[in-house]
Amino acid sequence: MEVVPVIVFISSFCFSRAKIPMYKLDPWWPGFPSIFTGPVYSAAVDDQKGEIYVSQRGEKVPPVLVFSMYGDYLRSFPFEPNVINMVHGMRIFQNATSGETSLWLTDVGNGTLGHTVKSFSSAGTLERVLGTAGKAGSRLAPLQFDQVADIALSRDGEMFIVDGDGGLNNRLIKLDRDFQVAWHRGVNGTAAGQFHIPHSVELDGIGRVWVADRMNGRLQAFKQDTGDFIGEWTSCFQEGEPYSVRLSADHTHLIVTQLKANRILFIASPRQPGVIGNCTVLDSIQLAEDIQPHLVAVSQSDGAFYVGELAAKACQKFVRVT
Questions:
Q1: What is the rounded CA–CA span in Å between residue 243 and residue 237?
Q2: pLDDT value at position 10?
Q3: pLDDT at res. 96
Q4: CB of 289 within 8 A of CB of 318?
Q5: What span, in angstroms and rounded, lies between the C-alpha atoms of 216 and 228?
Q6: Which of 3, 54, 122, 180 has the least C-beta neighbours within 10 A?
């Protein structure tokens, strides 16, 4: 009779239902992670070509490495500090007319082409520079940036820029398809529509722009067409401020990194236009100590996401489970 409680306990344990995680790590990506030699800041996914761009920093190291979806190393952009000084954010844009893709990145360095947003061909050829190259500033005409952090691109070529990552500016700027300023919002502050280090930006597909307002510990939402403030979330970030915000491939949730907490949050994305409601965490991934997850890139083809990790000097891939 003494064994009965033990049998009951084991039976209960074996048939309990554990929560199925939303994502799991792909331990085999990339093929040989030792290729990273500096802190990894960001990634971008070219779903059309099946390629992943990963940025890193370091003395005389390639600033951008390119991999296949399967983790094979393909090529890199050459070390040219006068062309790319210090990469922060990256995005892929596909031209609706030609079908060609370009890599857009933000350069927060003080080099010849620093404090700019610029585009490159898949081979690493510089195509366009936005901002006043090599000169930090706050003007809109001519356009100037300082520590420009991240960009988001709409399908028709509108660009949303958060500027900056600790510099002179704390603002969100929308550029039209001709790269002219359509509107801008924000100054340094804690009130609604103000920022203290706007670090990442994302579009949610139903007319909202989301900004990871890092040092204020919140996500803010704005109307994509006018820039009007919609609302903010703070309750999800009591244990670590948001560094990156990206929309999942199925548009059901936002993927948010918390660098200091070494955590990745999956937050329900409100699918009705207008008010954003409450912040609801669906799931999370607790990484090992001193990983420091930074900016994220999402594959639209398979739903996987890639996260640049500063302290770990790595880029990791997470794949959907449910």
A1: 11
A2: 33
A3: 75
A4: no
A5: 19
A6: 3
Percent of the chain with pLDDT over 70: 94
Each residue of 219-229: pLDDT tens digit? 999 999 999 99
Q: Which of 137, 157, 158 is nearest to 148 (CA)?
A: 137
pLDDT of residue 18: 63
Q: What's the angle, vertex CA 92, arms to CA 293 and CA 59, rounded to 5? A: 55
- Please write down the long-range contacts of 92-100, taking CB distance under 8 Å and 24 or more positions apart: 92/44, 92/45, 92/46, 92/47, 92/53, 93/119, 93/153, 93/157, 94/48, 96/155, 96/156, 96/157, 99/48
Q: What pTM was computed for the model?
A: 0.93
Residue with tokens 């510089």: 126
Task: State the Cα–Cα distance between residues 255 and 140, nearest whole angstrom.
Answer: 31
The count of other CB atoms within 10 Å of the CB of residue 302 is 13
In this model, does residue 14 exceed pLDDT 90?
no
Q: Mean pLDDT in the chain?
A: 93
Distances (CA, A) of 166 to 81, 108, 157, 225, 252: 21, 10, 27, 27, 31
Residue 70 makes CB contacts below 8 A (sequence gap 6+) with 29, 31
